[in-house]
Amino acid sequence: MNEKKAATGYDREKFRDLRNELGRLEARLERLIEDKQRLYSEVRNRVEFQYDSPGGFDRSRVKGVCAKLFDVKPEYAEYAKALEVAAGSRLYHICVDDPQTAKVLMSDPGSRQMRRRQNFVPLSKIQTRVPTPQQLAGARSAAASVDGECIPALEAVDCPECYSKVVEYLFGATFLCDTSDTGKAVTFHPQVRAKSVTRDGDSYDPSGSLTGGSSSGGNEYSVLRTLCEHFSRCKEERQLNGEIEQLNVEISRHQKSKGAWDNLDREHRDLDTQLGSVSCRIRSHPYHALHQEIEELNAQIEEHEKSIEELEVEKERLAADVDRLQEEVASLGGNQEEQIR
Question: Which UniProt keywords apply (predicted)?
């Protein structure tokens, strides 16, 4: 029976560990979802586009708020505020597939298709500008001259290929710099002459204007930073759901084995119960008493037979001793007769 149980492949300890791990992951997922929802609630009013679509309208033609179409690379998360300043109000423009879609949404203001006034960015009409090789080389040189860090804004973000034009529209030839000194050196470098924004949100324009960013060392609230944290929680949620799904598959497999194991275990207990009942009936039957008495008598017979065998051996030993003593006596008698003569 134990071999049959082992053949099911069920391991009680492993099954318990799997259930405990599932509970831990589900609790973690619950906390993650709460955190994700909290973060999104902080930026919902800025990044959520709500509208009542006309009948038969294909909602996939509306891509959404530009801020939600890309993500900041983890290694450049500290530049989230700078990216927000670089994009400005364009960050909250609505991306659509073409101008016709925007016209449909704006065609009848009385229908309240849109909840508030919006600016639209048709993907098919976006005109962009990206840093030239000369600007990139000049920016690196300028940053190195003040021992600073400078990266193109486009390099700090990640997005699906279909939205690359949107990202170029938002950030263009802007550079992100670690400090004000780096920003000034980059912006006013003769090979660059492009906008730069520091981590703290200070913006430098080649025309000579300076826009102050954060007055608290870059610690003030940032919509883009919060949105990126929300995206990060979404990724973690997808990953965690994948782990939970795999764990549930393994638990399901163990549950099937557990069913077979439980059936065998129940059968084992039933057989033990039946065996105990039969043993009890046998012990209470007169035949059992006679059988026990016979076994005891047989044991006594074996013991007596063994004793007889031992006595026979002792008898033979004693007989040999008698023969030896008689020979010695006879030998002594012969010697005495010779001495008398």
Answer: Coiled coil
Helix, strand, coil distribution of the chain in percent, nearest 5:
70, 10, 25
Nearest Cα to Cα of residue 80 among 65, 95, 91? 91
φ, ψ (nearest 5 deg) of residue 51: -155, 155
Listed by start position, the domains of the chain span 48-213, 288-339
Contacts of 141 (CB under 8 A, 6+ apart): 189, 191
CATH number (3.40.50.261, 3.30.70.1620, 3.40.50.150, 3.40.50.720) of 48-213 reads 3.30.70.1620
**Residues 81-124: pLDDT tens digits?**
999 999 999 999 999 999 998 888 887 554 444 566 789 999 99
Length of the chain: 341
Give the model's pLDDT for residue 256: 67
Q: How many helices and strands (H and E) does the chain possess?
A: 9, 10
Residue burial 287-310, b: 16+ Cβ < 10 Å; e: rest: eeeeeeeeeeeeeeeeeeeeeeee
Backbone angles phi, psi at 285, to 5 degrees: -85, 140
**Of residues 268 and 15, more confidently modeled:** 15
* β-pair partners for 233: none
Summarised one tens digit per residue, pLDDT across range 115-152 is 667 899 999 999 888 999 999 999 999 999 999 999 99
d(CA 137, CA 126): 26
Q: Determine contact, residues 83/63, Cβ cutoff 8 Å.
A: no
Residue predicted with more confidence, 7 or 332: 332
